[in-house]
Amino acid sequence: MSLVVDNKSAVTQNLLEQLQKNSSKIAFMPDTEIISAIRHLEEKGIPNNKHEDYKYCNLEAVLRKEFKSVEQSFNELTNADIASLKLDEAINLVVVNGNYNEALSEKMIVKGLTVKSLNELSSSEKTLLCSQAKSDTDALIALNTAFTSNGLFLEIEKGNVIPMPLHIIYVNSSNSHSVINTRNFIHVQANAEVTIVESFHNIGTAKVFSNFVSEKLVDENAKLTCHTFQNEGTLSYSVNTNQVKVNKHSNYSNTTTTLSGELVRNNHNVVLAGSNCEAHLNGLFIATGTQQIDNHTLIDHQMPHCESNELYKGIAKDKSTGTFNGKIFVRKDAQKTNAYQSSKNILMSDDATINTKPQLEIYADDVKCSHGTSTGKIDTEALFYLKARGIGEESARKLLLQAFAQELINKIEIPSLHEHALHLFEKAL
Amino acid sequence: MISIKNLHASIGDKEILRGINLEVKAGEVHAIMGPNGSGKSTLSSVLAGREDYDVTEGEVTFNGKNLLELSPEDRAREGLFLAFQYPVEIPGVSNVNFLRTAVNEIRKYHGQEEMPAKDFLALVKEKSKLVELDAKLASRSVNEGFSGGEKKRNEIFQMAMLNPKLAILDETDSGLDIDALRIVATGVNKLKSKDNATIVITHYQRLLDYIVPDFVHILYKGRIVKSGGKELALEMEAKGYDEIKKEFEIAD
Questions:
Q1: Mean pLDDT, to the nearest integer, of B176-185?
Q2: Do B72 and A382 touch (CB under 8 A)?
Q3: Structural domains of chain B in order of their starting residue, each with its CATH number
Q4: Considering the domain boundaries, does residue A413 fall inside one?
Q5: Which residues on chain A are in Cβ contact (under 8 Å) with B170?
Q6: pLDDT 10s digits, A400-429
Q7: Distance (Å, rounded) from C-alpha B27 to C-alpha B118?
Q8: Which of A58, A333, B59, B198 sits at 20 to 30 Å (Cα–Cα) from B33?
Q9: Spatial contact of A152 and A128, defined as CB atoms under 8 Å apart
Q10: C-beta of residue B218 within 8 angstroms of C-beta of residue B23
């Protein structure tokens, strides 16, 4: 056995020590899961850019440079802190530094809706935890499972259609370097339907490494529509894993709008586990400064007659970097699959970078799959045309970028939310 | 209105305009004709401020201002309008939103308040009738999926909305059938007044049957080689450009 500890395990070991020293002693995950999570984390180590899936997202370097010492010192939040983050026409649920905060959340009795924190779960509910997001697949899932905080459990019971969107506000606020492992589980039972808005914020004064894991289980003939807004600012480094399983005749969709974050890595993994189901993944980002926005998707077509659609668009300004890596598996049994993927990007400066990588692995023979990717600068002909009508350079660019993003913002069908997205996008421009 | 003196312009190493002189006064219609490659479109591009060209010599005064020092948007705000030979399609930007932005930026430049939405929509309605433009096109994306004729009508509709002092129509007749040509020309004629001026750039005389010029200039190899009244256009149509080519062959 070598006595030389390599850098990789040094960073992971340091993180483990820091977290074990500072984290609360209460465990919200089953003990066996925690033990195996720590083992997997030690084995794999926090990924660096030598890891194929993290080629453009060196998390090890981020933790080494920015989170050498982790203090876990958090701010208490009040209603006043949250007020501006709430959405009208939605049930607002608040998760502060990874913990579901009932006092700050809106209490509303809705038929068929269960809202709980992880420490309130019954033993049968507890068995659902870690059923989708497995520690052996990714070191960040393992990290989250080992140190998960008191997250949120949502269940829509069989046959219920929730009449208004649920808005989960994840707000982090710390006053010294912290690592936050937020976790939730969303279970949409058979024949049920719900729209969930998830918005991510950081209002503290110190750098935060936010490692979010959401397990989403959609039972038969159900529909889960999600809208994600990420606007955590430059103190935030986040990895967001969505591990979704869609069962037969069901429909899952997500539109992620990323407006800020020093590092935002999204791992959106969807398993189409039954026949005749659909998944729609959409993403829009604007990256400025030195921000790094990295969208990874994985759609696993396991059964026949399913459809998946992906449309990702990005605008990279200044010295920012945007990445889209979309993997599609079409398994042997997944005949008659339709899978489409498209990624379009605009580079707004010579120092900005866009990386795109479509990956299709097809093992069935009767499928329709296509992918396309384009990256370019803003259309100078269109720009000149607008200017020749008296529109100034800045307004002309704005008009063109809004036009570019329109297609994605229009995916948000709820009028008030559509307005909200438009407003946030225009502000970010 | 506009005074062009000894204008030279090149793209890369190639000189395209080799000393243009032209004086256009308010109330006048000037036609600039010439064979392909004579520099007609370059002239309109240089006047509108397209950055691909370098002006190497000469001056252009527009209503007392040095036009060449102004940005394309400021030229438009000062009242210069170019009807594009190839109008650009801009998916996702609606015609109405585009024009509202243009109208208001021009007003802002002149220290005026934004136009109230109601007045703006009334103006859209009024001016779209002028070129028989379907009101539905106003809410569609700029030029996206428009036919050739619709694109050209849309240019004249924009001209009507922005009410320029000087309009330059760059080959507005190209790709138009006779009905569309008539509609476009009628629109342009209705917009004519003693306070504004029009420069019509065209290869063919046909358009000039509808938009009757006060002056006709023949452009050849980057210079105006002949000027005259509207009869000059008819002469060109009858004889073709060959005679001009022979007469003014300039060694490259």
A1: 88
A2: no
A3: 2-247 (3.40.50.300)
A4: yes
A5: none
A6: 999 999 989 988 888 888 888 888 898 888
A7: 31
A8: B59
A9: no
A10: no
